[in-house]
């Protein structure tokens, strides 16, 4: 593989970490469309492009999800009773959704991703926040919500924060605790998603020799460490830069990347 691709993965991992620290967002919205374009340019078979982008992104966020969980736990911001009840649903939803994704063509996955990113971008621009109006449902209800969050997260390769935080704040959980609890939930999402995409791609014809199922190892090994390295830099910049304005700019960038992904696969 040409050194240009290695440098591209290094740059992508660094940028994802910086944005995660600066704006508190997961990396899937950036990684999936950019990886899709890189895989197209590398000549990877079209039918595997979106699956590889999703699987690699899920695996790449495992280290940062673990670091985020530990950080929020140290600050006492994780409601472990919620994590305990929601995790079975999260694991099942995420893992099962990878089997669904394996049967969906690349273009179908790209369309779903673009639609979800458009909704995320809209939410970031207008800053829609649900008003706290109720308490948490029972254990079965929480697990059912986890099933849905995990399923959507696997199909767009996110840590679930864009879904979990609004749900928890709607259930009268303090925002800082909602964010911390969401961070803890992000780890099982990443683990189940990475495992599911690995198993579903195992032995598939046409995959690169350096892929583990639908996880492309060169991209994973270069992106993951650098995203962890740049995340603290982004966190420091968050105290110096106008984050509200940056979030809106970033929302338009997410939308542009999603459109670029559609152009690449269509």
From TrEMBL:
<feature type="transmembrane region" description="Helical">
    <location>
        <begin position="48"/>
        <end position="70"/>
    </location>
</feature>
<feature type="transmembrane region" description="Helical">
    <location>
        <begin position="82"/>
        <end position="103"/>
    </location>
</feature>
<keyword id="KW-1133">Transmembrane helix</keyword>
<keyword id="KW-1003">Cell membrane</keyword>
<dbReference type="InterPro" id="IPR002781">
    <property type="entry name" value="TM_pro_TauE-like"/>
</dbReference>
<feature type="transmembrane region" description="Helical">
    <location>
        <begin position="7"/>
        <end position="36"/>
    </location>
</feature>
<feature type="transmembrane region" description="Helical">
    <location>
        <begin position="211"/>
        <end position="233"/>
    </location>
</feature>
<feature type="transmembrane region" description="Helical">
    <location>
        <begin position="140"/>
        <end position="158"/>
    </location>
</feature>
<feature type="transmembrane region" description="Helical">
    <location>
        <begin position="109"/>
        <end position="128"/>
    </location>
</feature>
<protein>
    <recommendedName>
        <fullName>Probable membrane transporter protein</fullName>
    </recommendedName>
</protein>
<keyword id="KW-0472">Membrane</keyword>
<dbReference type="Pfam" id="PF01925">
    <property type="entry name" value="TauE"/>
</dbReference>
<keyword id="KW-0812">Transmembrane</keyword>
<comment type="similarity">
    <text>Belongs to the 4-toluene sulfonate uptake permease (TSUP) (TC 2.A.102) family.</text>
</comment>
<feature type="transmembrane region" description="Helical">
    <location>
        <begin position="245"/>
        <end position="265"/>
    </location>
</feature>
<feature type="transmembrane region" description="Helical">
    <location>
        <begin position="178"/>
        <end position="199"/>
    </location>
</feature>
